[in-house]
């Protein structure tokens, strides 16, 4: 806990300091957390109060947030940290409802194959479980004047949009759920891919279109030729009445930005982090100061970074002492002792990794 | 004990290079088993333990607010002693080893944890995790061997001041947390090398003093003051002092048992050059000793009663050591190595016996019997007060006699 010093410190912090003389090396908050983890002033947490099955593979999780929950607007998402098999996992889910009278919040989760957290939430989470929360966030806010949306996606740029669409229209074994929050939405998706077989998530888009949740306009380079942004109006005649959200390669985004600026239209790019981590053999390691190293898969990050002149914390250099642990914000590393992969999954915060026994297995970003 | 490189019959002479490699492979497999099955139950264990420890400490301190009443004093002091021991041993020591880092809980993590102890966790991690666990029992590298103040090996030349080592050792036990703090600062060496002006040393010393000030304020000012309304200022102060001493004596005893008992091997500095993973494992196997006993003993010792397993796998969760101990012991037997385990009392006795034995010149204790006590004492007096020449001559004689006693005993 950071305490203010000096005679001008507010009374509250002076009291906190006084209380700390009794609890050190703990802080008073550690003691209060034992009895009242949801109190005002605590780290933001929530307690699962209800797990309501929507379908065999989807559930709505109702959570009583801590006293400091600042509220949200429909369409926002929140980051939730839950312990799965003892490991704290963070994911982002859109909030299911607008603000509720009882002050509770909820997320609707579909268990996806191999989805560690989604399966846990749908099938194993029990009322009473304490979860960790962050305040609601997201510019993708569904106001009433934004009921008409246009998504323009290219290649893997579809990934964040699929995340949003799944949250709006949970697709379950028994069909697409139409929730209150999305019943008035009119959504067009223009999805661009080199060819149909190359188009990831196309089945999801097609089933959403079949269920009437979205209007899908799929454009394949090999069939339709490369998309000309200036002719977007032909594909979407009511373009000007829609709010456009785009995700894709820089070339497409730049062209869209120019087009929308000329037309005086608003363009939003969603900030969901979406890279999927496919662990590779070796990779790059980026440091906070901008240093970028190219590493093979057999050398520890510590050795390689030191070789390159980066000042690294270190210790035993054999995986014992934790003296070398650094937070990894993105990427994946492979444990040189047993090949185990540690990856920062989208939605995760930073994960602390031992640099002395881990090699790069992807494009890693270290907070150091 | 002599470093294994200088023993007539090395305990690992029968192991081939491929044996040692195989030991490494088998131990890695044991480790992987635990990694694969580590999960929710383990996380629940440490969370529950931390919760229990905090409630016990809180409850004990609440009872001590009324410590003017003797039953409250006894109950509160006992509870606080146990709480402090749990904090230091099963919780603090093991979290600071990173045994629970895999949970990715920022509050239960080796990089953020702080404990009820004079030495700041940052400094302890360096001297303990980095130096002691890497250079376990290597003379001249592992300062845990005697904390730099004791003679721990026959090969270290005896000097008269070593006679006092049972006393230093006892004082160190009573004030163990401060001993550890000084040792983590490498205070002795810094003073000897006159490096007390070094800014890095000053920074670390300041952080130790800050920590000590907070600890002392809590136990000897804040809580006694809170007890004033019942007239319990002094009883609470005494209770906190007692709990600290109990914790110190207990943790010192457990730690002495880990590497100090007779039969634990030590190693030469140059023997670890180019050490393989298997070599490192074998050194840990021979350089540690276990304490056999009940579940309660394992818990209160922070599972350092499974010192061998802990040294082989310092980052595995401590609650799993008991489970792998039989496998590790079977491995010792397979490769004809000695798995050193004794109950607490014999193990503590053995450690202290070694402290006393090595406080005296080599062979002195072995060659002393009821009949020759006066002459032995006379020799010891001469060795302590006269010059190095006398000392060398007497030592030669002692060594010869000791060998004879050994041969007779063997016959």
Structural notes for this entry:
The complex is a heterodimer of chains A (368) and B (411). Chain A has 368 residues and is of the alpha+beta class. Chain A has nine helices and 21 strands. In chain A, strands 4-3-6-1-2-5 form a six-stranded antiparallel beta sheet. In chain A, strands 11-10-7-12-13 form a five-stranded parallel beta sheet, with helices on both faces. The two termini of chain A are 22 Å apart. Chain B has 411 residues and is mainly α. Chain B has two domains: 1-359, no CATH class; 362-410, no CATH class. Chain B is built from 17 helices and two strands. In chain B, helix 1 (17-37) crosses helix 10, helix 3 packs across helix 9 (233-259) and helix 8 crosses helix 9 (233-259). Chain B is globular. Chain A binds chain B through residues 21-26, 30-31, 34, 83-89, 315-316, 318-323, 325, 337-338, 340, 351-352, 354, and chain B through 28, 32, 35, 38-44, 51, 54-55, 58, 96-98, 101-105, 107, 109-111, 114-116, 125-126, 129-130, 133-134, 211, 214-215, 217-218, 221-223, 226, 280, 314-315.
């Amino acid at each position: 806990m950071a305490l203010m010093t000096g005679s001008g410190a507010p009374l509250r912090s002076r009291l906190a300091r006084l209380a700390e003389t009794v609890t050190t090396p703990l802080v008073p908050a550690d003691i209060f957390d034992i009895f009242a983890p949801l109190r005002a002033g605590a780290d933001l947490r929530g307690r699962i109060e209800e797990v309501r099955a929507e379908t065999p593979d989807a559930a709505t999780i109702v959570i009583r947030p801590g006293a400091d929950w600042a509220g949200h607007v429909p369409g926002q998402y929140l980051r939730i940290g839950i312990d799965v098999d003892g490991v704290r996992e963070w994911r982002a889910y859109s909030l299911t409802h607008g603000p509720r009278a009882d002050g509770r919040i909820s997320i609707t989760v579909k268990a996806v194959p191999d989805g560690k957290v989604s399966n846990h939430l749908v099938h194993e989470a029990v009322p009473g479980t304490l979860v960790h929360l962050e305040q609601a966030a997201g510019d993708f806010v569904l106001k009433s004047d934004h009921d008409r949306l246009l998504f323009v996606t290219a290649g893997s740029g579809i990934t964040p949009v699929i995340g949003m669409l799944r949250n709006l229209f949970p697709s379950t074994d028994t069909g697409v759920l139409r929730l209150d929050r999305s019943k008035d939405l009119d959504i067009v998706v223009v999805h661009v891919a080199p060819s149909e077989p190359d188009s990831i998530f196309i089945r999801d888009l097609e089933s959403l279109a079949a269920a009437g949740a979205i209007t899908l306009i799929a454009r394949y380079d090999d069939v339709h030729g490369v998309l000309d942004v200036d002719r977007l109006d032909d594909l979407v005649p009511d373009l000007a009445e829609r709010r456009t959200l785009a995700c894709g390669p820089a070339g497409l985004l730049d062209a869209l930005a120019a087009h929308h600026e000329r037309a005086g239209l608003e363009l939003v790019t969603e900030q969901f982090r979406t890279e999927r981590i496919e662990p590779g053999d070796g990779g790059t390691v980026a440091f906070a100061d901008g240093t970028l190293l190219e590493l093979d898969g057999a050398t520890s990050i510590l050795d390689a970074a030191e070789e390159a002149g980066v000042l690294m914390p270190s210790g035993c250099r054999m995986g014992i002492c934790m003296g070398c642990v650094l937070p990894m914000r993105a990427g994946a590393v492979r444990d040189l002792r047993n090949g185990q992969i540690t990856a920062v999954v989208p939605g995760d915060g930073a994960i602390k990794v031992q640099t002395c026994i881990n090699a790069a297995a992807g494009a890693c970003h270290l907070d150091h | 004990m002599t470093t294994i490189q200088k023993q007539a019959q090395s305990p690992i002479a029968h192991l081939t290079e491929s044996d040692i490699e195989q030991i490494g492979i088998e131990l890695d497999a044991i480790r992987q088993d635990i990694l694969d099955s580590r999960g929710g139950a383990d996380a629940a264990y440490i969370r529950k333990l931390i919760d229990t420890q905090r409630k016990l400490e809180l409850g004990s301190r609440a009872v001590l607010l009324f410590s003017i009443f003797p039953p409250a004093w006894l109950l509160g002091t006992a509870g606080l002693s146990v709480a402090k021991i749990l904090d230091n041993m099963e919780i603090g020591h093991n979290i600071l080893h990173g045994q629970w880092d895999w949970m990715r809980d920022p509050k239960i993590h080796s990089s953020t944890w702080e404990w009820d102890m004079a030495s700041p966790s940052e400094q302890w991690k360096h001297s303990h995790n980095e130096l002691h666990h890497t250079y376990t029992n290597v003379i001249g590298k592992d300062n845990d061997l005697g904390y730099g103040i004791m003679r721990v090996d026959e090969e270290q030349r005896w000097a008269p001041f070593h006679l006092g080592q049972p006393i230093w050792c006892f004082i160190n036990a009573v004030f163990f947390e401060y001993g550890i703090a000084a040792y983590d600062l490498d205070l002795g060496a810094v003073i000897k090398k006159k490096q007390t002006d070094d800014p890095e040393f000053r920074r670390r010393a300041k952080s130790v003093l800050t920590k000590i000030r907070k600890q002392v304020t809590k136990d000897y000012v804040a809580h006694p003051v809170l007890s004033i309304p019942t007239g319990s200022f002094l009883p609470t102060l005494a209770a906190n002092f007692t709990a600290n001493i109990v914790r110190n004596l207990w943790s010192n005893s457990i730690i002495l048992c880990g590497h100090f008992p007779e039969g634990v091997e030590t190693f030469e500095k140059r023997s670890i050059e180019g050490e393989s993973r298997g070599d490192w494992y074998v050194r840990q196997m021979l350089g540690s000793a276990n304490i056999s006993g009940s579940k309660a003993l394992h818990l209160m010792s922070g599972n350092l009663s499974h010192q061998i397993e802990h040294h082989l796998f310092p980052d595995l969760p401590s609650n799993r050591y008991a489970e792998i101990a039989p496998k590790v012991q079977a491995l010792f037997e397979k490769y004809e190595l000695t798995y050193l385990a004794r109950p607490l009392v014999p193990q503590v006795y053995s450690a202290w016996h070694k402290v006393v034995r090595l406080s005296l010149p080599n062979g002195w204790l072995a060659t002393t019997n009821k009949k020759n006590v006066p002459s032995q004492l006379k020799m010891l007096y001469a060795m302590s007060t006269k010059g190095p020449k006398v000392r060398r001559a007497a030592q030669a004689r002692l060594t010869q006699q000791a060998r004879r006693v050994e041969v007779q005993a063997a016959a």
